[in-house]
Design brief:
The protein is mainly β and 294 residues long. The chain contains 1 helix and 32 strands.
């Protein structure tokens, strides 16, 4: 089965059902491809939240929405060329005094935009309660950008993944791409600005080619220094070719557990943001794993 998707932003209750897209083990293998007429986003955020100016404030707008993990403003890009992320603060009064910020009490979300405008469709309140896309059957993805959710893409045991020209960004609780005990080929894909790891594999056999994973692991909220650009675990095998990993809050490339093996050709790895010396590295073989660099 093949689904061809036209350009646009497909979000909660406006493109898919409220629990996200699930390809379960009883279904046929599926291909999801971008049509080629522009960017295709599948995002874990509510469509068309209703914001109103909060009483007693000049710049704070609020909307009823629980489960918000991060907020981005797609009207603007940051210095790295990514969608502009709003800074999370700890009170409504701090939102008022802080341009480009938000606060949530898990009942409502409070926003102060970069340009003081009322939040519109370009403000995306990303959920930490669902996955935009989960698969338990073989999946082929081409040209799809997955945004937000606990992980942007979650793969179940035994399912195979082939992802080409895809992006996995702004996860809110877990990794960008997470695959459990599967076979996967990941080609020319990007996993940037995720909550934990960029590319995370829990066993299985994986090939990464021409991929990039930058700025994964959120700094300043007390996360451990174990957030990698790319990481294999639990006796899995991986070959990486012509990839780049950098600015992650941990070893940029870090594999873990006994019998885990990785063979890495022409890898560019630079500037870990880990605070502890043990994890501030570009390449690490943790817990009796084997890492070969060529």
């Amino acid at each position: 089965e093949t689904i061809i998707v036209g350009s646009g932003w497909y979000e909660h209750s406006h493109g898919y059902i409220s629990t996200g897209i699930l390809i379960d083990s009883t279904k046929k293998a599926l291909s999801i491809k971008a049509k080629g007429d522009g960017d295709v986003y599948i995002s874990a955020n509510s469509y068309n939240l209703s914001f109103a100016l909060e009483s007693g404030y000049s710049y704070v707008y609020s909307a009823t929405r629980s489960g918000v993990g991060r907020v981005i403003d797609i009207k603007y890009k940051d210095s790295d060329g990514e969608f502009l992320e709003l800074t999370k603060v700890s009170s409504i009064s701090q939102v008022e005094s802080t341009v480009n910020s938000y606060y949530t009490d898990n009942s409502k979300v409070y926003i102060h935009t970069k340009d003081n405008r009322e939040p519109d469709g370009d403000i995306k309140c990303l959920f930490n309660t669902i996955y935009p896309l989960q698969f338990h059957k073989d999946l082929y993805l081409d040209g799809i950008c997955l945004i937000g959710g606990k992980s942007t893409l979650k793969g179940g045991s035994g399912a195979k993944l082939y992802a080409k020209n895809c992006k996995f960004k702004f996860s809110t609780l877990e990794n960008g791409l997470s695959i459990n005990s599967s076979f996967g080929v990941i080609q020319h894909c990007v996993a940037n600005n995720n909550y934990l790891d960029g590319f995370n594999y829990n066993g299985g056999e994986i090939i990464e080619v021409d991929c990039q994973a930058l700025r994964n692991g959120i700094v300043g909220i007390g996360l451990a220094d174990t957030q990698n650009g790319s990481t294999q675990h639990n006796g899995g095998k991986i070959i990486r070719i012509n990839c780049e990993y950098g600015f992650n809050k941990g070893s940029n490339l870090g594999d873990n557990h006994a019998n885990t093996q990785s063979v890495n050709f022409n890898i560019v790895s630079h500037y870990s943001r880990a605070e502890k010396e043990r994890y501030n590295s570009n390449f690490t073989a943790h817990t009796n794993s084997n890492v070969w660099l060529f």
